[in-house]
Amino acid sequence: MPWALAACAAAALCLDLSAFHRHHNADSLVPVLVSLIRWTPFYWDQDRFGMLAPLLALPFQGVLANLLVQYGLLCFAFFAAHILLARYLWADARWPLAGSLGATAMVMLIPGDTLMAIVHNPFSPSLALGAAGLLAIGDADRPSAPRLGAGLVLLLASSWVNAGAALILGPLALARAWAFGLRRGTLWPLGAIGLSSLAGYLALRLAPFRATMLNPISPAEWPTAFAGLARNAWKDFGTAYWSFLGAAGLAALLLAVAALRRRSAQELRAALAALGAALLYALTCGALRWVHENGFSSRYLQPSIFVLQTCLLLAAMSALPAVFDHRRRTLISVAGAAMVAAIVIRYGPPRPNKLGEDLADNFGSLTEELLAADCTHLAGDYWTVWPAVLHAELVLRERGEARHLWGVSHRSWATRELWWKEAGERRFCAPKGDTRYPAELEEYQVGELVPVAERGRIVLLGPRSERVSHP
Would you say 94 and 318 are in contact if contact means Cβ atoms under 8 Å apart? Predict the structure, then answer.
């Protein structure tokens, strides 16, 4: 296992230092601001996405350093989730290759924006932590106290990062128990999953912001919901699905060979049962009002997709000759090389000195005008405001200035108390042409402000009495 995790770390470092960062957006950059400006247990104005990576990155207060540390951790979790899932479901030495091929397929085949969404969303770290917790507890009828404690801590972290972690981890534990014929030993991981799930639910309910709707939609809406999820998943992951379908076809052909079926009977049963767990999770997501209100986004199916591809690839790996069962380190080396090669082909070699330029090119168009106008607040559309705020934070810190540019947009309640009490004159601005800023100012009880002057790509906001008339 240490060799496999080392391969994941090498791949994560390579991806984190590549041009992958060109695909950031507001959603992926807010956690950096959470770590730099105000850490909260959950994503700003949320109650189910635990801010573990921003917590671990708190010692790194440089913008670029913080971003690299957070995404180094998240990239590691992405690769480790594939590897650890394969290890949990498969007993022999072929799991590293299956896990790495799943990660490699995603890196190579899906769009960069979709991969960024996979990496920064809570599902990869939650799966990685959950699978690690289940592996730590193990299958013994009475696990040792250190193993049980470590497993419970990892499962608690999994449920903090993603409040719905138990919806996939519980069925996976049952699938493995059915495949390998476990008895009393099954109760320990299931009990730990139950405790962590309860803790996650209580944390969700006690969070300052109660945003997530847990109630289900009516059964009459299920067909529309399931069709919407499937359609969006195919749109976002369609190219990668071809690799999954290829693995499924290969697995079906291999299973026709009786000798292969006998050699990997338990593992194949585990893969089949895990497919059922993935389907159950997908159906549960489709029935939730929260998923309905968020447009049936494919991101909610990420755990199911991870399990789906892992199971298909594991079944296909059953054809490897028995000699590979004694070549674990060789397979791990091949797996790590495959992941790193995919990253270099897709995103180029490591280029850490270019990160600042990438952020400036993508998000820095407003920065100089905002700072030259001494703007203290930027109000407007979520997708514009937070990237601009992050880049302004980068420039201000590079200049040694202690002030912030505050964002007034969706997810600003977490910081409103800080900027509302801040001494000094407030100078509100908005991107030129932005139509969202009046609603955002009203939402955060700023009062009515109107454009009073223009400065290039931004407008300065103030009371109507300050408006400059133009002949």
Answer: yes
Q: How far apart are CA 450 and CA 471, in angstroms?
A: 18
Stretch (H or E) spanning 407:
strand 406-408
CA distance 255 to 242: 20
Residue among 169, 217, 163 at smallest CA distance from 47: 163
pLDDT tens digits, 102-119: 888 888 888 899 899 999
309 within 8 A of 98, measured Cβ to Cβ = no
> What SS3 state is found at 297?
coil
Q: How far apart are the first and last CA of the chain?
A: 73
CB atoms within 10 A of CB 293: 11
Inter-residue contact 89 to 310 (CB < 8 Å):
yes
Rounded to whole angstroms, how far apart are CA atoms 43 and 54? 10
The DSSP output letter for 211 is -
Q: Could you tell me which residues come within 8 angstroms of residue 344 by beta carbon, excluding any fewer than 6 positions away?
A: 14, 18
Instruction: Tell me if 310 sits within 8 A of 242, measured CB to CB.
Output: no
What residue has token string 């999820």?
A: 229
Cα–Cα distance for residue pair 323/330, rounded to 1 Å: 11
Question: What's the gap between Cα 207 and its chain centre?
Answer: 20
Identify the burial level of 78 via C-beta atoms within 10 angstroms of its C-beta, where 0-12 means exposed, 13-18 middle and 19 or more buried: buried
Token pair of 196, please? 């962590």
DSSP 8-state assignment for residue 1: -
DSSP 138-181: -S-SS--HHHHHHHHHHHHHHHHH-TTTHHHHHHHHHHHHHHHT
Q: Which of 222, 347, 351 is nearest to 288 (CA)?
A: 222
Tokens 């002949």 sit at which residue? 471
* Tokens representing residue 176 in the block: 């493995």
pLDDT digit string (tens) for 59-107? 999 999 999 999 999 999 999 999 999 888 876 667 788 888 888 888 8
Secondary structure class of 436 (helix, strand, coil): coil
What integer pLDDT is reported at residue 347 of this predicted model?
A: 93
- Give the model's confidence band at 30: pLDDT under 50 very low, under 70 low, under 90 confident, else very high: very high
Instruction: For residue 285, give Cα distances in angstroms to 240, 303, 328, 399.
Output: 21, 11, 36, 46
pTM: 0.90
User: Pairing relation of β-strands 450-455 and 406-408?
Assistant: unpaired
Rounded average pLDDT over 405-415 = 95
DSSP for 320-380 reads S-GGGGG-HHHHHHHHHHHHHHHHHHHH-S--GGGHHHHHHHHH-TTHHHHHHTT-SEEES
Tokens of residue 334, six digits? 């091949």
Give yes or no for a contact between 151 and 139, defined as CB atoms under 8 angstroms apart. no
